[in-house]
Amino acid sequence: MSGYLFRLFGVVGLLLCGAPMALAAEANDLWAGLVQDIFNNRPMNDGSDVIGIEMPSRAEDAAIVPVTLRTKLAAGDSRQVRSITLVIDQNPAPMAAKFQLGPNANVSEISTRVRVNNYTDVHAVAELSDGKLYMTKTYVKASGGCSAPAAKNADEAKARLGQMRYRQFAKTGEGPASGAREAQIMIGHPNNSGLQMDQVTHLYVPAFFINELRLWQDDSLVLTMEGGISISEDPNIRFTYVSNGAKRFRAEAKDTEGHVFQREWKVDDSGT
Questions:
Q1: Calculated CA dihedral for residues 135, 138, 142, 148, nearest 10 degrees
Q2: Which residues pair with residue 186 across a beta bridge?
Q3: What is the per-residue pLDDT for 24?
Q4: What's the CATH number where 134 sits?
Q5: In the beta sheet, which residues pair with residue 194?
Q6: Is 16 contained in some domain?
Q7: Distinct helix (H) and strand (E) counts, the chain
Q8: Per-residue pLDDT tens for 163-198?
Q9: Is the residue at 9 inside a domain?
């Protein structure tokens, strides 16, 4: 962990001192250290036929960069994807999110929005039921996403804290109660990164973000997310899964100040 903290504060120091060229020079060195710190130096296998990652090559807004993670296992492959870890190498806290997939949910796609703080490689690492890690990556040009001011003022953000909305989408040709489906969970939360400055006091706003999310169809787990400061304001998670015919969908989120937010919907109550 000490090595990780050294690299973390080194990156923050370079950002504060305005040294993009020095950051670029270190870019090739970061991944090996992140493999050690995040994955305990476990071997990384080529994941080009296991996991895909889609992001714009140049972000329009570095504070809300869309990212989609998609499983690519062949239909006859008996292995399952157990988890997907999203790593934004040059961010102050590189592990953006770790998704654990429910064993019977057949989650095949996850989309969200992230902050990107500097031109960077972004890695997706899938752990399969064979116990091995498989990695793929993309490159994104963006800067300043982690320190960008919040879109909403503090009072507005506080008023919306923990509010959840849910949407459910049937895949083409599927009925409302079974088959492949898409769902979306939206949570009102400032997700402060700790690097944003209050425009009035000129003091840094303390980090305050959703760090845990769990989703179920009835009592069957669909997925969990361990989140960090790289997830954008008002977290938005969209995912594809296979329905088990459940009548209800449940969500529980926790943040770094210990708040617990819970909602439950009928599957057909989409949009509420």
A1: -30
A2: 165, 236
A3: 47
A4: 2.60.40.2470
A5: none
A6: no
A7: 3, 15
A8: 999 998 865 555 555 578 999 999 999 999 999 998
A9: no
Report the pLDDT value the prediction gives residue 11, as an integer from 0 to 100: 45
Query: Is residue 204 one of the residues assigned to a domain?
Result: yes
SS3 248: strand
Number of other residues whose CB lies within 10 A of the CB of residue 129: 11
Count of C-beta atoms within a 10 Å radius of residue 162: 15
The model scores a pTM over 0.90: no
Looking at residue 248, its amino acid is R
- What CA–CA distance (Å, rounded) separates 259 from 164? 14
**DSSP conformation class of 152:** S
CA distances from 156 to 150, 190, 203 (A): 11, 10, 19
Q: Which helix or strand (DSSP H or E) is residue 20 part of? A: helix 20-39
Domain count, the chain: 1
Residue 138 makes CB contacts below 8 A (sequence gap 6+) with 53, 54, 55, 57, 121, 122
Alpha-carbon distance of 176 to 217, in angstroms, equals: 13
Q: Measure the CA–CA gap between 38 and 138, rounded to whole angstroms.
A: 18
State the residue for tokens 């953006």: 96
Question: Does any domain span residue 20?
Answer: no
| Phi, psi (rounded to 5 degrees) for 19 | -125, 70
- Report pLDDT for 268: 74
Q: What is the largest CA-CA distance in the chain?
A: 58
The tokens for 256 are 């770094």
CA–CA dist 186, 198 (Å, integer): 25
Q: Could you list the residue range(s) of the whole structural domain that residue 172 is in? A: 30-266
